[in-house]
Amino acid sequence: MKDFGIDAYTPAQMAARVEKAGIVKGNMDFLSMYILSVLAGVFIAFGAILYTYVIHDSSLSLGMTKLIGGMVFCLGLVLVIVAGAELFTGNNLIVMACVSRRITIVRLLRNWIIVFCGNFAGSLVVVWLVSQSGQWTSSGVAVGVKALMIANGKVNLAFGQAISRGILCNILVCLAVWLCFSCRSVTDKILAIIFPITAFVALGFEHSVANMYFIPAGLLLKQTPQVLSAAEKMLGQAPDLSRLTIFGFLIRNLLPVTIGNIIGGGLLVSIIYWFVYLRRAAAEPVRKIMTKGPPTIAPDKTVAEAVETMKRHSVGSVLVGESEDKAVGIVSEADIVRKVLAAGTKPDTVKVTEIMSSPLISVDVKTPVYKIYNTMTEHRIRHLVITDKDQKVGFVSVKDLLRGPAS
User: Fold this and answer.
1) Confidence (pLDDT) at 154
2) Assigned CATH topology for domain 286-403
3) What is the CATH number of domain 11-282?
4) Which of 78-81's residues contact partners 24+ apart within 8 Å by CB, and which partners?
5) What is the pTM of this model?
6) Of 18, 62, 82, 226, which one is least surrounded by beta carbons within 10 A?
7) Is 286-403 the same fold as 11-282?
């Protein structure tokens, strides 16, 4: 009977789960990735809106105000993790899969670029919607003034300050995401998120995606006379908004903060945990994960007979050949669906040799796991034969790679 655990995953298990998630994210199709990244931008913007509204008129001390603001900002990452979305800062953890050579650097950068752009688009959509909602002019324009001052403070950071705050921010954000990989329930995930995210917000660290909402909001408010007048009355003088420009946003803040986020999450958190838990696994020989392989059927058999063999052995593929050592190809469930059923052909009229994938590619039993990934990616295949001194000794599939070594 399968064991359904209730304890949190161990750090070693968390590392393996993060790596597998990185493989999935790195190979996600463009449209799904972009839509999910737009959603993440929207979700983080929701957290930023709530943060601004809650702290704009607090009578509490600075520390308590920041603490409460940080707690409500957690809404953004809770939505990203629980509802499902692609967030640039959290996706810095994909570095673990890249360093293990489970995905290529091209796949890593593709994910980051698409997700970054999608996050930006989602944030700007929310900025426009809030500008049309009248939210900034509520409470006697105090909310708008607070949003303006938040944005102005961010563009007045020195370049080095912005990088440092970006590093510190994404250490905490990626640790929050990392902790979520230890969780088995929604409640666990929410609790795992609250403390790291509250800390980074309360301490004033810089989050690139949050700033995609905060600073564009400030740029719009800078053009609002009602807000500027209210800001002057509250401050006793006209605020210096000379750096609150598109240049100030992109070059003075977003660029250094993004660099800092990548260093904090992509290098510090990801590399450290990879080194501790995954560096040996990446170089393990394939014998650690190989299986006996699927059953073999003769080349003159039909697809219908192949299906019966799969059912009988509870497998998703069969080798084609006179014997296991003389296999010339492989037929998977995907081949049957794509090449037979989708074409409206009857399975009992098609020979397995007509739809099999061939030739079978083999690798030595001592080959490191990361090279198996590279071979499968290069040849666009899902199965490999494992040999020892030119004798077939096993088989490995994509499922075997994702499952990893037996514990």
Assistant:
1) 97
2) CBS-domain (3.10.580)
3) 1.20.1080.10
4) 78/189, 78/190, 78/193, 79/43, 79/46, 79/47, 80/39, 80/40, 80/43, 80/44, 81/177, 81/180, 81/189, 81/193
5) 0.77
6) 62
7) no
